[in-house]
């Protein structure tokens, strides 16, 4: 019977009693006639922290299952391959397959208007259940996803059967069942609509209106939402004493409807960047990493990291637009605001689930449960997810899908190293030629070519950072007669050159602020003070001597500053690691140092 895991040989129950063996067997049964990879078993059994003996332990479980089958003369059913294991059994031998057949038959009969037969078939399907899906099996991520899917089909079958009963005049018998269902599911709008219909058609209109008031109160109190349009329209019909049709269950085709509603895949990407230049090799790398590959067991994840203002978000947006056709089930986008706390993924997951057409009433409150539901919903889909400005791995984990045919692009001011299977693209400044091309796109090619040397000088002064060049280009665009050479001279003369690299939303200093404020106070101090070193490059030992700190403390501080891309590693023929400031990072550190000095010495 459905709900529990039970394997019968004739009349004999041969299901193993050991919890982990039951877990292995459940995965083999649900994935029957296909190979379950070894890494999938390990993920299911131990999650992200498998023991060192995981492979040996798994082989032991498989051996014990094979022995159980061998005792019944069926050891050939459990097969071993180079990639994993498979259980070869006919679909018809499983209750879950028979249940699916009965639900499909009932749905078809209901669509043809044969409600009596449909109700009987659906009742037969539901009678196969003895409890919740896999209720006696410990479930990891994979089995949890299957259990959620089975429960969703079971719920759909229940709604279809209730709809069939309403159409055949069994309203009075349904009232008590529906009262139990709305009590168990106080936010489930369809159950409430069905109860309202059954009560109204039984001549109990006041009770039906009271059901709506209770539903609305629950939705407003718990979710700050009003009831949906279908149940609201039903309520209005009852107030006007109109005849009330049965609510349409999920997946059902009303007799007068030719086609089901088509759900539009989400398309949440920001507009493509019109003045995007360069980065051809990075776009190609992203396309290659995120292209479909049936050998994968997890969704590919690419992290784009780099200095403030280097164009991480622009690259992610350009690559995502190029990849849209490869992810036909939709593209999801979220930008994590600066200072996002632990609760931030919960809101993003809620938005993602709604975009994937999960009703509000079925979205759980907690982050962990939302993450599980998101992983379940994305199984079998090809979805591209873009997560912009992710501050740390802890926030990232909850937002990842479970299907290997999905893809994820992440931008971060930090490297986010340490997530297994991810690829990191480190983004640097543009070349001088690319920087000039960006100015030409903003200002017009003729104007830039007339002052080519001045344009190249502006690129150099801006550190060839796309954000800085867009700020300069935007300022010059509103002053069509202003010479590029004069703008370059103005930059050199300015006592606060970073103020010249700001226009509208293009603000270089603000980007540096975000990275700087992510550092500890001692790390901020090291970043400011080391900008006073006379040499362009320095080692950790040189920094320790200059600051008067012990070497271990300095190395830790340099690692954090480097992780925020506020300093850069310098290629050297020596074995010793060297560091350096980019031109704009040094300007920013100098500004911060002067500001600190002014606060400590206000008389100056």
Quick tags:
alpha/beta; five-stranded parallel sheet; three-stranded antiparallel sheet; 26 helices; 9% strand
Task: Using the CA coordinates, give the radius of gyration.
Answer: 31 Å
Strand order of the largest sheet: 7-8-9-6-10
**Discrete helix count:** 26
Look at the helices and sheets and give the structural class. alpha/beta
Q: Report the portion of residues in β strands.
A: 5-15%
The overall strand count is 15
Task: Name the quaternary structure.
Answer: single chain
Q: Please summarize the sheet with the most strands.
A: 5 strands, parallel
Relative helix content:
40-55%
Outline, from the CA principal axes? globular
| Poorly predicted tracts of residues | 250-262, 339-343
C-alpha end-to-end distance:
84 Å
Question: How does this structure look, described?
Answer:
Helix 15 (393-397) links the parallel strand 8 (384-388) and strand 9. The longest helix is centred in the first third of the chain and has 27 residues, at 141-167. By secondary structure, this protein is of the alpha/beta class. 52% of the residues lie in helices and 9% in strands. Strands 7-8-9-6-10 form a 5-stranded parallel β-sheet, sandwiched between helices. The termini are far apart. Helix 5 (115-126) packs antiparallel against helix 6, helix 7 packs antiparallel against helix 8 and helix 9 packs antiparallel against helix 10 (229-239).
